[in-house]
């Protein structure tokens, strides 16, 4: 019995049909751009597509899925944005393992593009093509993107898959050389199915988290994990309007002391959804949006939250 590599991917029938037909009709493009918001299955789709591309040629077909997950297939190069740390490149996951806190986000570097060129310079070993996947392709600096452009113009026996949040997030010169594959927000039924199948049913009991996710299972899971970071007592206090000026100042102090900037930015999203469900007041959402902009501009967090909660107390 033939197993469909795309069976784990839910809620993206258009992408599945496009990619499946490309293989069936032997019309696989030299380069693809998978675009859509985070957490809707782009990375999973890339893994499924690679499995489909390799399944016809790889000799040890039974071990193919596990080899792809482990990243040890000789004809696959999976590229992720990295940090530079003590002369080494670290992915976001590796930086987290080392408890490294970085102010700037990870990026795909020029030397990683050079490694792609070197990888594609040899013929495939087990399958009919080499495959390169670039996660968060929008993080490439212009120099890296221009270096990749030369590879896209003459990929040889290869297929490249770029993953990005939107077409506008990558250079037009790259976009013009890729076949675009759109990924969409999941409907409620598909979102529920994904969360249930992945063992995250408890998230379905948190409407504000689901609202923040906006049809993205990955964002729902990430938001729920952020929710667990916030002390329960603090969260209970935050879901109600401040009862006094003193209460507003105490909340601001606690947030600044106990939550890092990333969690504070997530909290803005969560409170916007939670407060809207309670009060349906656009002015409150506007105040929180101002708080987000101030945090992103590296304003003093305690002062940002003091102004926000004092304004909230006055308004309500």
Q: What is this structure, in a nutshell?
A:
The chain is 53% helix and 10% strand.
Structural features:
5-stranded parallel beta sheet; P-loop_NTPase; two-stranded antiparallel ribbon; 316 residues; 15 helices; DNA polymerase III subunit delta; alpha/beta; DNA_Rep/Repair_Clamp_Loader
What does this structure look like?
The chain has helices spanning 13-24, 42-55, 64-70, 92-97, 110-120, 142-153, 172-175, 188-197, 207-213, 217-229, 232-238, 245-258, 261-279, 282-296, 301-315; strands spanning 31-35, 76-79, 82-85, 88-91, 130-134, 158-164, 179-182. The chain is an alpha/beta fold and 316 residues long. The longest helix is centred in the last third of the chain and has 19 residues, at 261-279. The radius of gyration is 23 Å and the shape is elongated. The relative contact order is 0.11.
Helix content: 40-55%
How many angstroms separate the termini?
62 Å
Helix and strand pattern: HEHHEEEHHEHEHEHHHHHHHH
Shape field: elongated
Sheet with most strands: 5 strands, parallel
Averaged pLDDT: 92
Q: Would you identify the regions where 5 or more consecutive residues have pLDDT less than 50? A: none
Strand content: 5-15%
Strand order of the largest sheet: 2-5-6-1-7
> How big is the Rg?
23 Å
Based on secondary structure, the structural category is alpha/beta
What count of helical segments does DSSP give?
15
């Amino acid at each position: 019995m033939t197993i469909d590599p795309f069976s784990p991917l839910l809620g993206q029938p258009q992408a599945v049909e496009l990619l499946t037909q490309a293989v069936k009709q032997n019309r696989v493009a030299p380069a693809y751009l998978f675009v859509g918001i985070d957490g809707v299955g782009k990375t999973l789709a890339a893994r499924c597509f690679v499995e489909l591309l390799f399944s016809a040629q790889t000799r040890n077909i039974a071990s193919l899925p596990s080899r792809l997950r482990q990243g040890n297939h000789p004809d696959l190069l999976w590229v992720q944005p990295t940090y530079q740390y003590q002369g080494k490149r670290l992915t976001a996951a590796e930086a987290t393992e080392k408890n490294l806190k970085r102010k700037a986000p990870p990026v795909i570097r020029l030397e990683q593009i050079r490694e792609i060129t070197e990888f594609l310079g040899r013929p495939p070993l087990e399958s009919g093509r080499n495959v390169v996947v670039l996660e968060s392709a929008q993080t490439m600096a212009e120099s890296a993107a221009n270096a990749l452009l030369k590879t896209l113009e003459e990929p040889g026996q290869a297929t490249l898959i770029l993953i990005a949040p939107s077409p506008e997030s990558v250079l037009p010169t790259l976009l013009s050389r890729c076949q675009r594959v759109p990924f969409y927000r999941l409907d409620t039924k598909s979102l529920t199915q994904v969360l249930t199948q992945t063992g995250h049913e408890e998230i379905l009991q948190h409407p504000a988290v689901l609202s923040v996710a906006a049809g993205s299972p990955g964002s729902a899971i990430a938001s729920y994990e952020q929710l667990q970071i916030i002390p329960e007592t603090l969260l209970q206090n935050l879901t109600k309007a401040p009862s006094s000026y003193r209460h507003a100042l105490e909340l601001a102090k606690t947030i600044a002391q106990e939550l890092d900037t990333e969690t504070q930015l997530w909290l803005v999203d969560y409170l916007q959804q939670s407060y809207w469900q309670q009060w349906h007041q656009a002015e409150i959402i506007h105040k929180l949006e101002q708080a987000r902009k101030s945090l992103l501009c590296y304003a003093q967090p305690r002062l940002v939250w003091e102004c926000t909660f004092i304004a909230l107390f006055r308004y309500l």
